[in-house]
Prior knowledge:
The structure holds three protein chains of three kinds.
Chain A: H1 7-21, E1 27-29, H2 56-69, H3 84-93, H4 95-98, H5 123-141, H6 152-163, H7 174-190, H8 202-207
Helix pairs in contact in A: 2-3, 2-6, 3-7, 6-7
Chain B: H1 2-13, H2 24-36, H3 39-43, E1 59-62, E2 65-68, H4 85-94, H5 109-112, H6 117-129, H7 151-159, H8 173-183, H9 189-192, E3 210-212, E4 215-217, H10 233-242, H11 253-261, H12 267-278, H13 296-308, H14 310-313, H15 339-347, E5 349-350, E6 362-363, H16 372-382, H17 395-405
Antiparallel strand pairs in B: 1-2, 3-4, 5-6
Helix pairs in contact in B: 2-6, 4-6, 8-12, 10-12, 13-16, 15-17, 16-17
Chain C: E1 3-4, E2 8-13, H1 17-28, E3 33-36, H2 44-47, H3 56-61, E4 74-77, E5 85-86, H4 102-105, H5 115-118, H6 120-128, H7 146-160, E6 168-169, E7 172-173, H8 197-208, E8 214-215, E9 225-226, E10 232-233, H9 255-258, H10 260-263, E11 269-273, E12 276-282, E13 289-295, E14 301-311, H11 315-325, E15 348-355, E16 372-375, E17 394-399, H12 420-429, E18 433-440, E19 449-457, E20 463-468, H13 473-492, E21 497-501, E22 544-546, H14 561-579
Parallel strand pairs in C: 1-14, 2-3, 2-14, 3-11, 4-20, 14-22
Antiparallel strand pairs in C: 4-5, 6-7, 8-16, 9-10, 12-13, 13-14, 15-18, 15-21, 16-17, 17-18, 19-20
Helix pairs in contact in C: 1-14, 7-14
Amino acid sequence: MPDAPTSRRLLLSATALIALGGPAAARSIRGALPWSPNEAYPPPRVTAGGWLYFTAEEAASIEAIANRLIPADALGPGGGEAGCAIYLDRQLAGPYGSSSWLYMQGPFARGTPEQGLQDERPPAALYRQSLSAINAHCRARFGGRAFPALSPEEQDALLHAIDEGRSGIAGLEDKPFFEMLLQNVMEGFFADPIYGGNRDMAGWKLLGFPGTRYDYREMLDRPNQPYRDPPVPLSGLRAASWQVAR
Amino acid sequence: MRALLLLAALLLSAPAARADNQDWTQVARGRYLAVVGDCVACHKATEGVAASDYAGGRPIETPFGMINAANITPDVETGIGRWTPDDFAQAMREGRRPDGAHLYPAFPYPWYTRMSRQDMDAIFAFLRTIPPVRHAVNRNTLPFPFRIRAAMIGWNMLFFTPGELRPDPAKSEEWNRGAYLVEGPGHCGVCHTPMNALGGSRSSEAFAGQSLQGWIAPNIGGNEALGVGAWGVDDVVQYLRTGATAWTRASGPMAEVVEYSTSGMTEADLRAIAVYLKDRPPRGPAPPAPLAADAPRMRAGEALYIDNCAACHRRDGAGVAGMIPSLKDNQITVQPGVETLARVVLTGVRSAATDLEPTAPGMPSFGWRLDDQQVADLLSYVRNAWGNAAPEVDVSLVRQQRERLTRGP
Amino acid sequence: MSRRLPPTDVVVVGLGWTGSIMSYELCRAGLRVTAIERGPWRDTPTDFPPTTAPDELRYSIRHDLFVRPAQETLTFRNTMNQTALPIRRWGSFLPGNGVGGAGVHWNGQTWRWHPWDFTFHSSSVARYGADFLPQDHMMQDWGITYEELEESFDRFEYLCGISGKAGNLGGQLQPGGNPFEGSRRRDYPTPPMQMTAAPQLFAKAATELGWKPFPQPSANLSQAYTNPYGCKLAPCTYCGFCERFGCGNFSKSSPQTCVLPVLVRHPGFEARTECQVTRVNLSRDGKRATGVTYVDTAGQEWEQPAALVLLCAYQLFNVRLLLLSGIGKPYNPATGEGVVGRNYAYQVTGGATGFFGQDKIFNPFIGAGSVGMVADEFNADNFDHGPAGFVGGASLACILTNGRPITNRPVPPDTPRWGSEWKRATRDNYNRWAAVGLQGSVMPYRGNYLDLDPTYKDSNGLPLLRMTFDFPENERKLSRFAVDRCVEAVRAMGAHTVRRNEISGPYSIVPYQSTHNTGGAIMGSDPKTSVANKYCQVWDVPNVFLSGASLFPMNAGFNPTGPVGALAYWAADAIRDRYLPNPGPLVPA
């Protein structure tokens, strides 16, 4: 080895980091696996009540849309009832809404479909602009009624038109908006309830998805049999909310 | 060949060369005894001060307040560089500094007093050889009245019996070696023998375990349900050497003991410790009747157990051998006190890492996810399922642990 | 202004699978190793325990474990006459980040590649003639053979504790294993995973079709295991949160479960996290690396001198670091000259999804990353390609990894995407679908390559990598052929409705396909056409060694982690046994 340094010099390198860079600037790990009590990184638990991003009309519009995309019926509650609007409101108020995790440096160009997302506007701005365009269109077309005040049939017809890219609504890019909307509403219906949607695990109960059970070994010898234990969310089930079948 | 001859010469001359700090065999033995005595656990330098195992400053929790461990490197100004072997022996035997001032029994002289002078000299000889570190430690942090060191005169009269341990001729050499290690340098009773209100050991309850610093130092005597009575000698050896057996793992303060001390001990010494501990009179309460499986609390706890614990500890509580602790037939689960159980659930825990068991699997914190009542129900279930039997857990105890250890849920 | 640190023996860029293996092997050889990792420290009980790991939104949809594109991404175009634009949000592939790298969030499908793969060019010419090979191909052998790597494959499998069934022990075919695999010295360390309902059905159907299905070799372990380093793993619980997630109960092989516990204990090792290496520093003549420069989270730039530099970052970022450092001549597709960036390849994915009658309950949430059955009849050169008209192949598998509901609730074709009818179909089919997927090879081509983007920069102001890639006709033929086989299998399983999923249109970075990017810094036997020699040593700068899939001259019909791990052992051995006694080029140029 050319000029193999001594262990004393290695020691100096570690202290140099502390002295010059400050410990926050470089975490040095050696000797033992780091661990500290209470260390856990659960997502912040969304509590219902109030809107962090949406205006009242935007929130009502998303609830109405979610109830058409996932209607309430004999199989269970609709998307709006399941909290999809609360879910989306909290998402738009966070890093998703502002695209803060994404690469958002310019120059921006439209690109090919294969090049994916190239829109400069983050989801929060897109929702604001698109819902405003949809409600302006509704008021003009349906005698002053915004989207939430339309009949279910009128709502469905409009949503189909947007889905198929033929709404003609000024200021709305039908397809990109609808793809984002459908994805986000489905997220709200099927994501862990800790994020504000999937209330009472309505989405999971529709499917029979057991949530965070994390252990199905006892089912391996029982193929083709239904799973019986109730779903568990990240925040856990309340005491005595279920009992093990004897 | 020459080295061998030299070594032989050293060995031959060792008894004569007492307290000669050039004696390699004495220094090596002193280094081993410092490991047995787990000196580093307390005398380790505080983070960032100095890269020395013995420069001191680490705060030690006592019933009376925090005491900072001394710098025991041979630094003349801030360590024990001016001490003589006699000074060191006086500290170990009588708990007094060269100037006559009393040390607090956070320094376990009531145990070290039982060591032979030869062993004390060996440790001292070893300490003379480590690099001196200049590190002044504030040694007077206790609140009034405990900061008056003379108060220890009374304490010593009440609780301290100086003097070297005498072997029991009726017992085997191995048993006597175990007794010496456990009662002397190993100072196991500091944690595992219940303390009275003034910090003295209740010898009538020796090794019966106690609540200490928010943990349970468990029963390590001959009791089969609560102690090591049902363990094989090999199990005790494996636990102390590696930090794990098939069904349990050392964690918390014991993880440090394993990492710094017992994992560095010889097999013969660990066997001796096991033989002696297993022969301690069984102490501790008889197990109560278990909670009925269909008691509401057991049903609630069972559901919580399956939701939260079974993915690692399995539905039958058996865990994964050598990896994830079993909760049945595990003495920790059924200790009279539940501080450790509540703490482990609330804050999570990491087990000991040793060369033989490097993985040190950790349990995550559930404090953010389970409330006090849920933890109490869950633990009551675990303590009474699968053949376990132990008192159910009061929610106030969980609340106290949470207040002590965590931010709220 | 960079601050210079005291030198170390070895600096390792990236602490994932290869970084941790090579760090530990070199620590054990007596060297002092400093690993520099772009992302955070991560460990099981704190960062992905069962209390927080099973969170589909956070990890699978929002990509919490992956590198934030805001920090580092690349640009993409299909062809050289397009303008590349940045991948602003991950889609087609998901590059890892942080300690453990992709080893934290992989599925655990662990293969030895076929002996044929390593000689894919010369073997294809020998069997089919040079004229049979696709237009503009850049096929060339690896410069290393399966036989040379066999011991290293074995070591990686025993490091991980892979659960599987041998198909070829010392040349003797073994019933129940893969009859097409290369000869192995011993069986897998642990027995295969227990199969769930859908893979069992596939195995039966595949057997009826005359194929020889066998259990997917799995890094989700069938039983508790202690590896040769003394690290312990627990048995898999089939939780259904494997790929894109860390494993909460120590049952998936990863740097965290298999290496880091012993590595951090080694006195010769130090890890520095959240430090991004921006270049390898070279001596004035450019023939020796002097260390690396990195930037910490405060924006401070540091120079870490070292005698040896190991590039252990993800494939894309290893190539970018070479280009940013001026190591090796950049590839020029116009002339075909240069080496860094050539032979970039991807994988063909797709298959067929079948929908079954009400008598089936597949419980898709009971799964693991590698629980499934595989048929290898149409992979590599395991069949006569003459009639098929393409080179390469695909493995076919029924692996039910999860039933996570945001993503995995397929409905039959022609079902509306929303509304009451969608809701009913979703409920009725959630438990009654199974897919047979394919993983197919991609050959190297002249126009598929990596270079630096002329326009877009990362958060440190350095040029992003640029990818130019599309699937050529050879791979489209392979896709059609292999999807046909998947459809046959799904029909034989008894599906009443089948949905095809094959390549159509240009390659798109939007839908997820595979994080098996390969090439760009390939190994070979000629410095004019490869970046590194057979010991993964850079031809031009012999104290720089490479690891990972950037070394692969082609992409095969199997997951890459097996050869990635094997090459890490192979290169570490070469450094210890060949380079250290006599530092310098290990193969004369």
